[in-house]
Design a protein that fits this description.
With about 950 residues, this protein is α/β, with parallel strands linked by helices. About 45% of the residues lie in helices and about 20% in strands. β15 and β16 form a beta hairpin. The longest helix has about 50 residues. The relative contact order is 0.03.
């Protein structure tokens, strides 16, 4: 019976329904349903007592009441309403979650018109309300009362009710029974389905337990999945590291192009790759599979491993429980896959470690068998269990005979003492590795000196398992030990004590000197000509001289003196004397002995010895200080022409100390950027104008002030500091030239000196980098190379100069005439200018030789089509002579001293020039380009 077939006898808006419900939420829901769906007027009461009061105040058309309520339940409310003459005609519908027959009888007994079981169906509730209202309107005048006697559980209930009321209750009970029957049937079906699903899950889990590979997991899972209702086919695909899907198993899975291509590059795979396939879902069709198929992600807590595709029949719909089962199946398969991978990984690791263990075992066996060390392993009873070939060779026992014997039988002590046997009788429970030295008798009776390193090997439970001994047979090394001891203290060539033994001897004599108030002198002796003899006559001659020197000095190595060879060509005598005068006498005696001729292959050789003397305690408190003083005195003696020996004086170390301080300050100057550049103009003798400047470095010393390059360039060359200084000069000169141009001055070449250490293959890259970084045009940079540096390796110099010339840089030979020049190489060099050294310019007005040299250099340079510039021009007479002999350019104090960048810029702005009017000059040389790529003449 449906509510749509029942006419509305009473207009809904005229119906007043009283809802009695102690749950505010349910009361609100029921009121909203009756108001919105039924259009009725609704009132709400929280319990039976409140509802009875509201009904008496204004009688409702209908009462809908819950049964279980505080203060007054629904049964009591209904009974009170039916007993009230003013309210008994009001229909009462009871809402209950109770399903017992007692509730039905109790409802009839209290006069309820109907009851509906919770949770109720909204449509059913509204239909019952309309039916009750319609029936009430149609039989409003009927007054026939009926009665019904019911025997239930041994109790008799007589129910007085209207016929229609009883009919309504019976219908309601019947409908409830039908509904409960249907629900029970559905519940039974769900239970049966759940049982079937659980059985399927159990079978899958049972099948997957023994699977140890991905392939086995896939095959066993699909075999069970085909038993699931509605599953026509299935396949499993796993994700490879590159993100693509790989088929591992398929059963009855029709994928059109083949199972191997199912769901590849289709909607299913894209969802999986994007992480959108989180829960199982039904795909009607995809690019590869036309039929409906369920896609179930194979997911674990650490990620998704792949996808399970189940092909289902058309029109098959899965409920939530079935999807949940499929999700569980996917998780089971994913866990099994993960377990199979872990097993495979563990199996691979076990195999790898087994192979590694076997390899290590083989390696250890190979090491033990091939090692020169003796290796013997013994059990706690003293029985030999391992005996390597080195033991066989040393002790004379074959391994097959030694293994199984007691170790004291194979290694008897040469002294006859039962040390090993007693050792095993009292084996230590814990023992660190120890070293045992001694002699043991080999099988042939010979004594073998062996040094053993021994240790006990324990089991995990702490008990002793093996005694391991590794030994070195040092029988043949005993003699070598003595030799090593000799070589560590004596010189192998001369047999004299060496520096190590001399140090000990000095310490011993120091103690005696302190006690006796004498003096100890260290005489350091070095023959000056010994190096030259080795270079000219060979090493054999030098060795012979060293032996003869030792023989002559050995006479002083007695009593309170000692002789030693302390260096490659130096000897020392340490002697205790009463005073320094006696040490002087000793020095003269040594010189007399050493001054006598030495002989080598019938030739007489003289060594010219020198002696430096340091005295304890005056010149030092320890060996190193005394030796340092003697070395300083020896340097002084070598420089002295009057005396061949010298005592140490503190001032001898002063120059070395000052040089060390100056070098340290120079290193700090590089780090602190204490250098600056001065620029000396270069002037043309043809026009008198400034045609270039030479950059000259200065050191702004924090204490000494401005230091000229002559004071530190040599030291910089020696220490290698010239490289960072030279690069700084080159960069700063290029930056200054560019700065002058930015100030509006005409472009002017700047000349920079290159040191010999700078002139290497790396200078080309350095110049190119600095020109690129500063932006200076290459033709505005002139590099000056000294004559001696360029001629040191002419072929190498030619290659470097050619690369610089190709770059566009101007080149000059500096200090020309002061070194050795091979004109055959010079004519090939791609240089543009020769600089006449100031040593020839200085006396050009009074020294005919200097004037002749200057004329020759100018003539030769012009012959090679080179420009000549004279350095150090300080007087008008020098200028006149140079101009008269055709010199092209000059620089020097006569025109300008070197000045800083700002002063030089001021001269350039003022266009300062040299007055050349009246200077007699030779006709200008032939003006034509010089080709430095000429082929050398034969």
């Amino acid at each position: 019976m449906t509510s749509t077939l029942i006419p509305h006898v009473i207009a809904p808006e005229r119906v007043d329904i009283l809802v009695v419900e102690d749950s505010a939420t349910q009361a609100h829901f029921l009121a909203q349903l009756l108001l919105t769906a039924g259009g009725y007027h609704v009132r709400i009461a929280a319990n039976g007592r409140e509802a009875l009061r509201a009904a008496r105040e204004a009688a409702p058309t209908l009462i809908v009441s819950d049964i279980a309520m505080p203060e007054m339940d629904g049964f009591a409310l209904c009974q009170a309403v039916k007993q009230d003459p003013a309210l008994r005609a009001i229909p009462v519908i009871l809402l209950t979650s109770l399903t017992s027959l007692y509730d039905v009888i109790k409802g009839l007994d209290c006069g309820a018109d109907n009851f509906i079981r919770k949770p109720f169906d909204s449509t059913y509730l509204l239909g019952r309300i309309r039916l009750i209202l319609a029936n009430r309107a149609l039989r409003a005048s009927e007054r026939v009362q009926l009665g019904m006697q019911v025997n239930l559980g041994g109790q008799t209930h007589f129910i007085t009710a209207e016929r229609q009321q009883i009919f309504d209750l019976l219908i309601s009970t019947y409908e409830e029974a039908i509904q409960m029957t249907e629900q029970l049937k559905a519940q039974q079906e769900r239970i049966a389905h759940s049982y079937q699903s659980l059985e399927g899950l159990y079978k899958i889990a049972e099948a997957l337990n023994p699977a140890l590979t991905e392939q086995a997991v896939g095959e066993l899972a699909l075999e069970r999945l085909l038993d699931f209702p509605g599953v026509l086919g299935a396949c499993i695909k796993l994700c490879d590291p590159d993100g693509r899907l790989r088929l591992i198993a398929a059963r009855e899975f029709d994928a059109g192009a083949g199972a191997d291509q199912a769901c590849v590059s289709c909607h299913c795979e894209r969802q999986l790759q994007r992480g959108q396939l989180i829960l199982p879902q039904l795909v009607p069709s995809c690019e590869q599979v036309a039929l409906p198929h369920a896609c179930i992600p194979l997911a674990t807590g650490t990620g998704t491993r792949g996808v399970l595709c189940l092909m289902t029949g058309a029109g098959v719909a899965l409920n939530d429980e079935e999807w949940q089962v499929l999700e569980t199946v996917g998780n089971q398969i994913a866990v099994a896959i993960e377990r199979a991978r872990l097993y495979g990984s563990m199996e691979a690791q076990v195999k790898e470690r087994t192979e590694a263990w076997q390899s290590e075992r083989n390696l250890l066996a190979a090491v033990v068998n091939t090692s020169g060390a003796l290796v013997c392993m013994v059990d706690p009873d003293g029985v030999i269990r391992r005996f390597n070939p080195a033991c066989e060779e040393s002790m004379g026992w074959p391994a097959l005979e030694a293994i199984g014997r007691n170790c004291w039988d194979v290694f008897p002590k040469a002294s006859g003492s039962p040390g090993l046997e007693r050792f095993f009788d009292h084996a230590p429970l814990q023992s660190k590795p120890t070293q045992v030295r001694g002699q043991w008798l080999a099988r042939d009776g010979s004594a073998r000196a062996i040094i053993w390193s021994t240790t006990w090997l324990s089991r995990p439970d702490g008990t002793l398992e093996y005694f391991l001994g590794t030994g070195v047979d040092v029988t043949e090394l005993r003699g070598a030990e003595e030799k090593v001891r000799f070589l560590s203290n004596f010189d192998a060539l001369t047999g004299l004590p060496n520096r190590i033994l001399m140090r000990d001897r000095v310490h011993q004599l120091q103690e005696k000197v302190v006690a006796s108030k004498q003096v100890m002198g260290l005489l350091l002796i070095e023959p000056e000509r010994l190096r030259r003899i080795g270079e000219s006559l060979g090493n054999d001659a030098a060795q012979a001289m060293l032996v003869q020197i030792a023989e002559r000095l050995a006479q002083w190595g007695q009593e309170e003196a000692s002789v030693a060879r302390v260096g490659e060509r130096s000897f020392a005598i340490v002697a205790v004397r009463a005073s320094a005068d006696e040490l002087s006498a000793l020095a003269r005696q040594v010189l007399a002995a050493m001054s006598a001729p030495f002989s080598f292959e019938q030739e007489e050789l003289h060594l010219d010895p020198c002696i430096g003397i340091a005295v304890f305690p005056n010149d030092g408190e320890d060996y190193d200080a005394i030796v340092q003083g003697a070395e300083a005195a020896l340097r002084g003696a070598m420089l002295s022409k009057a005396q061949r020996y010298q005592f140490y004086r503190p001032e001898l170390n002063q120059d070395a100390h000052e040089r060390f301080k100056f070098e340290s300050a120079l290193r700090r100057a590089v780090e602190r950027d204490e250098f600056l550049l001065h620029y000396q103009p270069q002037v043309s003798l043809a026009s008198g104008a400034i045609i270039g400047v030479e950059a000259l470095v200065r050191w702004q010393h924090p204490e000494l002030g401005l230091v000229a390059p002559g004071s530190f360039i040599g030291l910089a060359e020696e220490t290698g500091l010239i490289l960072p200084i030279g690069e700084w000069v080159l960069r700063r000169a290029c930056e200054q030239s560019c700065a002058w141009q930015r100030e509006g001055l005409a472009p002017l070449p700047v000349s920079v000196n290159l040191s010999a250490r700078q002139f290497s293959e790396s200078i080309v890259a350095t110049v190119a980098r600095i020109l690129a970084e500063t932006g200076l045009a290459p033709h505005l940079l002139e590099l000056e190379l000294t004559e001696s540096a360029s001629m040191e390796d002419p072929q190498k110099s030619f290659e470097i100069l050619r690369q610089l010339k190709d770059m566009g840089v101007q080149l000059a030979i500096d200090d020309f005439g002061t070194g050795y020049s091979n004109l055959n190489y010079l004519k090939r060099f791609p240089v543009d200018k020769l600089k006449l050294d100031q040593s020839f310019v200085k006396d050009i007005t009074c020294d005919a030789d200097d004037l002749s040299i200057a004329r020759a250099v100018i003539a030769m340079a012009h012959g090679l089509r080179l420009t000549v510039i004279a350095e150090g021009v300080e007087t008008a007479d020098q200028l006149a002579l140079l101009a008269a002999n055709g010199c092209d350019e000059i620089q020097g104090y006569f025109f300008s001293r070197p000045v800083d960048g700002e002063a030089c810029a001021a001269m350039l702005r003022a266009h300062k020039s040299l007055a050349v009017a009246g200077q007699a000059r030779q006709p200008p040389r032939q003006a034509r380009a010089r080709s430095w790529r000429r082929t050398p003449r034969a």
